[in-house]
Amino acid sequence: MELRQLQYFLKVAQKEHVTKAAEELHVAQSAVSRQIHQLEQELGVELFMQKGRNLQLTPVGQLFCKRVESLLNELDRSVAEVHEFLDPERGEIRIGFPHSLGTHLIPSIVAEFRRHYPHVRFRFKQGTYPSLIKDVISGEVDLAFISPFPENVGHVAGDVVMTEELFAILPQNHPLADEEVIRLAQLRDEKFVLFSQGYSLRPIVWQACQQAGFKPQIAFEGGETDTIRGLVAAGMGVSLLPEMALYQTNPMQPAQVRVVEPKVTRTVGLIHRAEGKLPLVAQSFRNFLLTYFKDRHTENTPVGS
Description:
Blueprint: H1 3-15, H2 18-25, H3 29-43, E1 48-51, E2 54-57, H4 59-86, E3 92-97, H5 105-116, E4 121-126, H6 129-138, E5 143-146, E6 156-170, E7 181-183, E8 191-195, H7 201-211, E9 217-222, H8 225-233, E10 239-242, E11 255-260, E12 265-273, H9 280-300
């Protein structure tokens, strides 16, 4: 069994067509057909069956395809690790993060890291809580920022790098807009603008409202912090957002007020696959991040605390 046979097989499985696979591989159609035939003979099974003008994987072909895809991904990672071992300052870091961290935190830490390692490349992937965990486990990303930090999730390891307070955001003309602090229960009769299902901030806000003795009335839902802020500023309701999501990015801004009873926070974690090793360049970035957040925590900790 040859590597080329596996590569051709996977491409045909993806394209469901020999001709299309051959075009993308830049080889003759006959060469692809021959390699697939030899692979099937060696395995003693049929990997594809005809479905109209296309090819479809047989049940055993589907099973084999999953293994081949995993094998070739590991091979690609192994080759990348070799290159990064030779020059770890010129590798690529694949990092995932939720939208709420993309406005300020991610640009800041990447810029700081590139001051020391200017040739490192970054590939970014934004996602929701479940999609980020899936991307880490599948190897789609090397590292991911995630909130809240996942507890007891198999195949994932990591560290809590910070705990962030959530503030109430209100229309500028709201009666509570000029208060220094409010109790969350004071918003029980308000309409809320919340993140849609699947976004990690939604259950944090929901649980905090329940802890304060009420169920939030939802007026609007959104998927981006700019949308939430804009709707609140326009008088469509109130919400809670982490401090990091309150950096001004447009002229229309809501008022922000600290919340007590209960104090609402979220944890932000940095996770990676529990099995296997990170590429050296990604490990360098992880070490940098742990030091970055440790120093930041120390600077913000009162003396004597």
